[in-house]
Amino acid sequence: MEIKPAAGRQTIERYGRTMFSVSGMEFRTSIIVLPERTLAWDVRDFADVAPHALDAVIAHGGIDVLLLGCGPRMQMPVPELRAVLKAHFIALEPMDTGAACRTYNLLAAEERRVAAALIALI
Description:
The chain is an alpha/beta fold. Helices cover about 25% and strands about 30% of the residues. The protein has a single domain (about 10-120), classed as MTH938-like (Hypothetical Protein Mth938, Chain: A).
């Protein structure tokens, strides 16, 4: 099944060991994918994911769901992280990074208000 991105939305084209390709740009770091742009994310592994690490998502506004790509396997974030996002009306959905990439593309194609914070696979 081919998923067509909504006009102006970021699309995750590929991901692999230490790399992501998003809307024609290549990143060799963890990333935050917002609807209209992708940012390098200074997170090397799941232990680095603290509430302040998601300030760009909160500052963006208009995000209903944040997909957290936890690396090679899904992990449960600390309750404080979920609480900070909930205070901004953002639902947090942790999953492995591959699943987060695929889910982001699907929700973005449906024009949902979604972002993804993706930890690079090392």
